[in-house]
Amino acid sequence: MAVTLTIMQLQQLKVELETDPLILGYAPFAVAKRDADLALMLNEVRATIAIAAGILPAYKIFEAIIPSEWSSLTADEKQRIQTILSMGQVDTAGINTRAAFQATFGPATVTRSNLVALLTRLGSRSEALFGPGRSVTHEDVGYALREIA
């Protein structure tokens, strides 16, 4: 296996491992050069890390909408949501998508709570650093700690 990160990402990983901003306990493993253990720590899904769920089928979003809350929307709000649902698949990380849901469904609605739960999932530190679905290898860790200036 080879290094999978770019130089900029390796620099970011080096800072992460040296500063341990979330206090995950990297230091003893870094000193012992236990790169595989560090990679496992970075790739572990944690209850404290939420990331965008990524691409979702539109039917899941449809199922999150409460019918009584739908009927209280304006025609423009309904059109906005119907446009999103017509896409077939929806990028939940999209700024426009999130803004549309927030503008349409108020903070006190069950639909908004459902959508918030649907649009995020638990993630790993490597996903928080490098994007949904990304992981690091022990080679990435070793290179970041010992080869990046």
Name the descriptors.
single chain; 2 domains; 10 helices; two-stranded antiparallel ribbon; elongated; alpha+beta; 149 residues
Characterization of this structure:
The chain has 149 residues and is an alpha+beta fold. The chain has 2 domains: 7-48 and 124-146, no CATH class; 52-123. The protein is built from 10 helices and 4 strands. The protein has helices at residues 7-19, 27-31, 35-43, 58-64, 67-71, 75-85, 95-104, 110-119, 125-130, 138-146; strands spanning 45-52, 55-57, 89-91, 120-124. The strands form 2 sheets. Strands 1-4 form a two-stranded antiparallel ribbon. Strands 2-3 form a two-stranded antiparallel sheet. The chain starts with 6 loop residues before the first helix and ends with a helix. 22% of the residues are buried.
Quick rundown:
With 149 residues, this protein is an alpha+beta fold.
Q: Which helices and strands occur, and which strands form pairs?
A:
Layout: H1 7-19, H2 27-31, H3 35-43, E1 45-52, E2 55-57, H4 58-64, H5 67-71, H6 75-85, E3 89-91, H7 95-104, H8 110-119, E4 120-124, H9 125-130, H10 138-146
Antiparallel strand pairs: 1-4, 2-3
Percent in strands: 5-15%
**Helix-and-strand structural type:** alpha+beta
Largest sheet: 2 strands, antiparallel
Helical content stands at: 55-70%
Using DSSP, what is the number of strands?
4
Order of helices and strands: HHHEEHHHEHHEHH
Mean pLDDT score, rounded? 93
Radius of gyration (CA) equals: 20 Å
Low-confidence stretches: none
Global geometry: elongated
Q: Count the DSSP helices.
A: 10
How many structural domains are formed by the residues? 2
Q: N- to C-terminal separation?
A: 22 Å
Strand order across the largest sheet: 1-4
